[in-house]
Amino acid sequence: MMVHLDTASADPFVLEQMHALVKKSRDRRDIGLEVLPVPLPGPGQVLIETEAVGLCGSDIHAINGHVGYEWMPERVTLGHEAVGRIVRTGANVDSACIGNRVVPMAIDGCLECETCLSGAPQLCLERDCLGLSFDGALAQYFVLDADRVFVIDNSLRASVAALIEPAAVAAHAVGQLAENLRGRRVVVSGPGAVGILSCLFAAAAGADVELVCPEAGPQTRREFAEHLGIKTIYGHHGLAAGPPVDAWIEASGAEAAFSGAVESLRRGGTLVVVALFARAPSFDVNQMVRGELRLYGTYGYTRADYSTAHELLVGWQDRLEPMVSTYHLTDVDAAISATEQASVIKAVVVPGGATKTITGSTKDDLSH
């Protein structure tokens, strides 16, 4: 049964209930759309009315209970690639921020330890993630610490603003290629949002970029990348022609892409892995050792990466908006399926207004 949303009022101080996508346990696919109280911001926090939320691979891993997500709480509202507007503040937060359009710094550290103070909060031992460690944004409202919001340009449409978090991931990944990229041959594997955005950042740095796409399955992502002017190829075997590959960004989470990168890189080349894998990949370690390949993992982002991402999206808004396929929160199961099947580039969920009076079912079970 579809949940009817009564949006006659949008006053968060009157509204008491909202809809949220909840992972109800650690069991595979144990998710549901539920009616919950609208949260109140505590000291140092803000209440954000959600405009849009993107789905990503991490959400799919979490929904399916893949290896590496055992640390998640037993029950949590999902969603971290969000954009919204601050509508209420908790104690010790300047109310002048009410009305600001913001995106959350979804991954952040304690901001007090040596790692955080060195400028790498994404590596903090106490780091957490909105929508995975604690209740997230796949709801009509969510709360967040006020120092974890990034104010965005009002001209940035919500569907595009939801790309800021994955764009920051891509900017951080390309930043691991510290050497001058001008004229370098850089390959990116994985034509999802992070892969395509990584291509744009690498190209902006002067690299000659190619995007490796799978031969099987929907070609929507490859076609969109080519529309942006990105050269695409099928599989790493298509790299035989041309100069040696100087650097590779692995954004697919596919074992074949990882091993293909090790095979294809020139000696002394660099492999940056930004994807998370459902299971550990196998590859030729001896080839990596004998070729003196540099292997880097890259995780999350810094506030500077958010600034870089914001600048790109403001400038490319019209060209990047077709990346997004929009779904309502009551149709989130279709958004999840489309993300899993790679039939869309980026599924973005629009929660809509909260409601005090709920009609129809009080819980839509989306369990598969």
The second-level CATH architecture of the largest domain is Alpha-Beta Complex
The CATH topology label of the largest domain is Quinone Oxidoreductase, Chain A, domain 1
Q: What is the approximate shape?
A: globular
| CATH H-level superfamily of the largest domain | Medium-chain alcohol dehydrogenases, catalytic domain
Number of domains: 2
Strand-and-helix sequence, N→C? EEEHEEEEHEEEHHEHEHEEHEHEHEHEE
CA radius of gyration: 21 Å
How much helical structure, as a percent, in the residues? Answer: 10-25%
Q: Count of DSSP E strands?
A: 19
Average pLDDT for all residues? 89
CATH class of the largest domain: Alpha Beta
Could you give a short account of the major beta sheet? 7 strands, mixed
Structural class: alpha/beta
Pfam families: ADH_N (PF08240), ADH_zinc_N (PF00107)
Cofactor: Zn(2+)
Domain Alcohol dehydrogenase-like C-terminal: 193-313
Keywords: Metal-binding, Oxidoreductase, Zinc
Layout of helices and strands:
Elements (H helix, E strand, L loop, with lengths): L16 E7 L7 E7 L7 E10 L2 H7 L12 E2 L3 E9 L11 E4 L2 E2 L5 H4 L10 E2 L11 E5 L3 E3 L6 H4 L2 H12 L9 E5 L3 H12 L3 E6 L6 H8 L3 E4 L10 E6 L4 H10 E9 L11 H6 L3 E4 L5 H18 L3 E5 L3 H9 L5 E5 L12 E3 L3
Parallel strand pairs: 11-12, 11-14, 12-13, 14-15, 15-16, 17-18
Antiparallel strand pairs: 1-2, 1-4, 2-19, 3-5, 3-9, 3-18, 5-6, 6-10, 7-8
Helix pairs in contact: 4-5, 4-9
